[in-house]
Design goal:
By secondary structure, the protein is an alpha+beta fold. The chain has 4 helices and 5 strands, in the order H-E-E-E-H-E-E-H-H. A 5-stranded antiparallel beta sheet has the order 3-2-1-4-5, with helices on one face.
Amino acid sequence: MALLHRLAVTAAVTTAASVAALAPAWGTPLPLPLPIDGESADRLVITVSESGGPADAARYVLSCHPTGGTHPRARAACGQLDSQTEWGRDPFAPVSPAAMCTGVYGGPATARVTGHWAGRPVDTRFDRSNGCEIARWDRFSVVLRMHGS
């Protein structure tokens, strides 16, 4: 019985050493920094301009998880962002240059979104210059606060 115990211990030590040898030399990755003072890690600054309506042209801060900021419909905007977020896909990705888009013009409205979402930096622009861009804008209509879309 002692021999079986000694063999089991030896096997466990050998396995642990093998696993440790396979670990990367730089160790385990560092965790993402935690928000300070209850601030959300998912925080965006949204600037909309040229929208045609004074109530639409504005700058908002949107925090999610927990919900906060100056966005007037923060809870709904966070919900819209959550619904657009899938693992491994950038919800803010621009329209592909190879996309076939209709020549429909949606107006001069533009928006810029910066900050962090789902652990990644965000710095993207929106416009309504063609059918693809209008569809992209509409996927974020609550976030971008464009009335009538």
